[in-house]
Amino acid sequence: MSQAPPPLGNPVVRREGRDKVTGTARYAAEHTPPGCLYGWPVPATIARGRVSAIHTDEALALPGVRAVLTHDNAPTLKQPDDPILAVLQDDRVPHRGWHVAVVVADTFEQARAGAGALRIAYEETRHDVLLTEDHPGLYTPEIVNGDFPAVRERGDTDRALADAPVQVDATYTVGALHNHPMEPHASTARWTEDGRLTVHDSSQGSTRVRDSLATAFGLRPQQITVVSEHVGGGFGSKGTPRPQTVLAAMAARHTGRPVKIVLPRRQMPAVVGHRAPTVQRVRLGAELDGTLTSVAHEVITHTSTIKEFVEQAAVPTRVMYGSEHSRTAHRVAALDVPSPSWMRAPGEAPGLYALESAVDELAAALGMDPVELRLRNDPVNEPDSGRPFSSRGLAACLETGAARFGWYERDPRPAAREEGPLLLGTGVAAATYPVYIAASSATAHAAPDGSYRIRVNATDIGTGARTVLAQIAASVLGTPVENVRIDIGSSDLPDAPLAGGSSGTASWGWSVHKASTALLRQLRERSGPLPAEGITAFADTGQETSAESPYARHAFGAHFAEVAVDSRTGEVRVRRMLGVFAAGHILNSRTARSQFIGGMTMGIGMALTESSTMDPFFGDFTESDFASYHVPVCADVPDIEVHWIEEEDPHLNPMGSKGIGEIGNVGAAAAVGNAVRHATGVRVRSLPITPDTLLPYLL
Predict the structure, then answer these.
(1) Is 662 a catalytic residue?
(2) For 214-220, what is the mean pLDDT?
(3) Confidence category of residue 1, pLDDT binned at 50, 70, 90
(4) b or e along 259-273 (b: 16 or more beta carbons within 10 Å of the residue's beta carbon)?
(5) E strands present in 275-381
(6) Does residue 97 come out as left (phi exceeding 0), alpha (psi in the -120 to 50 range) or beta?
(7) Strand 166-174 and strand 686-687: pairing?
(8) How many alpha carbons fall within 13 Å on the CB side of residue 65?
(9) Catalytic residue (one of 183, 229, 623, 662)
(10) pLDDT of residue 699
(11) Where are the alpha helices (DSSP H) in 458-588?
(12) Could you give the residue ranges of the DSSP H alpha helices within 306-347?
């Protein structure tokens, strides 16, 4: 008798877990075709200018060195769809770390030695790498990341601010931040005699990589296969193709042999994207009862001279709280810096840090509880568009979180609770992240033996996508989840979007649900046994996902944190955290809890440890390894508690799910910062809050 299928939401064990812990899961750098060579990219050592000469003779004379590719001999590319992929096409150096050569050798060590033997001459020109509030190059872009308008205004913001009896006017800064996944960015490329290209790539979306390579090399997408079967994290930095993918394909074409390139960690800050620094002025005006009358959030950030990417930090302010008057705006300066890009919860993470810190300051000015202030300003409709929310669980998150955390038992006075030299405090912050869903396609196959096979080019970046997609299919087909095989991670599978923006499961899952539903219909219409080859149903969700929803769709959350600040050293330790989230129907409680905890841990890093400093003279980020760029370790992370509010939202997708990767992150840093203020009475308006920035206020 067959086992009943587990309903969505059950804590099904991740099906690739054993492969990962036993080392049998193979990542991009672990595919080594016969005759494989190794490439070492060579970064520019100036901040701006051009390469005047590259002397390769000494490198080529070293044992094992097979080739040196430069702009003089590298294959010519078509115009790439992303300017950062136009490597080795000319002599320009737009920023420090831009790749100017790649050395190819029999071994990794020989390639590295060859790179060290290159003699490169430059013509250096004056560079500009520092973002300032009054930078003369600041301009207002048309759109910001996510295709949002750069400026939105309702009412008369300045007049309402001036008339408000209670006001907050504060500026918050967040420095540049970098993704540092454990797996470096890596690609292994191989050409066949008939002109086909196969690439194993550490990517969050192999369909996107395939299409970008096709554009760059002038091929049809069908001539390229990109495999991203297992990916060791990315958090946005692997969301689009990176230069090592193109360099590996170029080197493989030049040498006629497979080539593998793994980016050294020290090179990653310059070429795989970063969270751009932001300077954010937030002004709030409120009545004496706490009702917000006016909100202004103005952001200054940087982009590169290569392409425009503007962090949408003010956009969540358009959603979070109701007010009659509002202005949210972005200005940007194009500097001689690496191109910024996505980092988990781009825009929302720094933007909500500033907004939720300002709301905490307003609560202090009003003498009102921070939770109550947020509840008082919880809108019925989305303030920016006027559309009704498909569901808005923020109030439930705040109320449930306050009860579970013991929020109302605290002494609201700052710097009032001590344990010897330790100052204790608690903080809260709200969180929101939009619901994104993209078109996806999938097939569902039924075999005569009663098993099923789902094929969809999803990417599992450690979130358990294989497991959840199997659960979705099993729930539709009415079969045990063990009876469903999942094929993902290859561009030869049905096209699907990348894993990013908390949109993966919703997008892939919708197509899997639709294909499984179509297959079930075919099975019910049949009589007699299945043919030997089985039957297959195909589905795509282009029509469904292209229709604009009449609802504003967002996930919400509330973060609570308790910290201990050592008054002698300025060291901050998070003692406990609670996150309560409203993210639709949770599809797997085990993998969801892991994602929420991961997001909150990233928030701790943003608040207390992570920082990338731009050196104004050399034009590069000084923190370029784990010795200097400090991500949270086990000792920094308390026993984090996660809870969620089950939402019944019929306006999302057939599963009723929202994304969960980002919502666990976006309010965490503000909650920690607000807790530090409550513990010490000191408001630090720049992240990270490190002993050297906090201690002067405690002495």
Answers:
(1) yes
(2) 98
(3) very low
(4) bbbbbeeebbbbbbb
(5) 278-286, 292-304, 325-335
(6) left
(7) parallel
(8) 23
(9) 662
(10) 86
(11) 465-477, 504-525, 542-546
(12) 317-320
Q: For 566-578, b where at least 16 C-beta lie within 10 A, e where not — what string?
A: bbeebebebeebb
Q: Per-residue DSSP letters for 201-254? A: E--S-HHHHHHHHHHHHT--GGGEEEE-SS----TTTTSS--HHHHHHHHHHHH
Question: Whole-angstrom Cα distance, residue 511 to residue 588?
Answer: 18
DSSP-derived 3-state class of residue 307: coil
Q: pTM for the full model?
A: 0.97
- State the Cα–Cα distance between residues 246 and 620, nearest whole angstrom: 23
373-379 average pLDDT score: 98
Tokens 């993704």, located at residue: 179
Amino acid identity, residue 61? A
* pLDDT per residue as tens digits for the range 547-595: 999 999 999 999 999 999 999 999 999 999 999 999 999 999 999 999 9
What Cα–Cα distance (Å) separates residue 384 from each residue in 169, 326, 502, 690? 22, 9, 21, 36
Q: For residue 13, what is the DSSP state? A: P
Quote the mean pLDDT of the chain: 97
3-state secondary structure of 633: coil
| Helix 589-608 vs helix 348-366: crossing angle, to nearest 10 | 70
282-318 CB burial, b ≥16 within 10 A, e <16? bbbbbeeebebbbbbbbbbbbbbbbebbbbbbbbbbb
Give per-residue pLDDT as tens, 418-434.
999 999 999 999 999 99
Contacts of 332 (CB under 8 A, 6+ apart): 138, 139, 140, 141, 300, 301, 302, 303, 308, 310
CA distances from 431 to 365, 633, 648, 689 (A): 22, 24, 19, 20
CA angle 127, 129, 133 (to 5 degrees): 125
Q: How far is CA 476 from CA 469, 509, 650, in A?
A: 11, 11, 17
Q: Percent of the chain, pLDDT > 70?
A: 99
**Tokens standing for residue 377:** 């300003």
Cα–Cα distance between 542 and 540 in angstroms, integer? 6
